[in-house]
Amino acid sequence: MGVKILYRGNHDPMTDRGTPWTTETAWAASLELLGHEVIRNHEQTDDWSSTLAQAEGCDLFLWTSTWGHHHEWRPRERSFVALGLLRAQMPTAALHLDRWWGLSNREHQIHDSSMFRCHFVFTPDGDHDDDWRAAGINHHWLLAGVYGPECIPGSPRAEWAADVAFVGNRDYGHREHAAYRAAMLDALCERFGDRTAFWPRPGEPGPFGLDYNDLLASTKIVVGDSWQGANRYWSNRVFEVVGRGGFCVHPAVPGLVDMLPEGMGVAYFPPGDWDAMCDLIHWWVDHDTHRAAAVERGQAYVVANHTYTNRMQAMLDVMAAEGAWA
């Protein structure tokens, strides 16, 4: 049975730093692929009065709040009142890809922001179950993923050709992890020199969408990163790379190794062991046939198990199991 969902978030890609893509775009489309109706409530333009008006007849309020709209998160402002009215009408759920616990510039939002007052909260941070519970938040671990319809082979492009690439911010914005990432990237540069490419270039967005597939088809190895000490948290990078037809060398996060087995478009090294990382990259760069077979296996495995269609179904299943529509 289809669910009518009012989804508040950034659904207008061109307002998001000029890029043609947002996470909400993929999530909303994935819900529609499952047969649900999604009303896109634009956080950047729709005030809470219009949100409440659009909620009539809906079965679920879903909310992904972005950094540009953090002023609306404080519970004493309009969002808190509006969310209370929505909670009285239907199940409410917050959905996000970010991490909060352990971040000095973000953890306070768990207690301050209205988004965390939804009936359900879904994030990929599975390392803090006790903390979520102590904060009175009904949190459920929901993995990152990749948009299924874009899991197709890319086309190699000469301008993106590289043996090794890192896709992401070189200067990481959270000081708790910045030194760790810097050490990893320094090790790549020291071992591979100009054989290493970094994307995006300074001042440029992306790559996004199918351009990312072309970049991966042009690159032998993409290096992943993950929060040091994590067991059940990692970014969407690994599923994006493997699902779009790339090969990823990634820290061996225990939960990830269980979810995406070695050889399925990914090879793992002990977190923080940069020599092991570089040795692994050398081997896979030099073995094109093995790498191509692993890429094919990995893409098929991710399409079957780790797309955002899988994730949205898992989210709805959790809510149904807890009696959201009983």
Notes on the protein architecture:
By secondary structure, the chain is of the alpha/beta class. It folds into two domains: 4-145 and 307-321, Rossmann fold, CATH 3.40.50; 149-305, Glycogen Phosphorylase B (Rossmann fold, 3-Layer(aba) Sandwich), CATH 3.40.50. It is 38% helix and 15% strand. The protein contains twelve helices and eleven strands. The strands form two sheets. Strands 2-1-3-4-5-6 form a six-stranded parallel β-sheet. The protein has a five-stranded parallel β-sheet with strand order 8-7-9-10-11, sandwiched between helices. The longest helix is centred in the middle third of the chain and has 18 residues, at 175-192. The radius of gyration is 20 Å and the shape is globular. The model has no long low-confidence stretch (mean pLDDT 91).
CATH topology of the largest domain: Rossmann fold
User: What is the C-level CATH assignment of the largest domain?
Assistant: Alpha Beta
**Order of strands across the biggest sheet?**
2-1-3-4-5-6
Number of helices: 12
Order of helices and strands: EHEHEHEHEHEEHEHEHEHEHHH
Mean pLDDT: 91
> What share of the residues does DSSP label as strand, in percent?
15-25%
What is the number of independent domains? 2
> Could you name the ranges where pLDDT drops below 50 across 5 or more consecutive residues?
none
CATH architecture of the largest domain: 3-Layer(aba) Sandwich
Query: Radius of gyration over alpha carbons?
Result: 20 Å
Shape: globular
The helix content is 25-40%
First-last Cα distance: 13 Å
Total beta strands: 11
> How would a crystallographer describe the biggest sheet?
6 strands, parallel
Structural class based on helices, strands and sheet pairing? alpha/beta
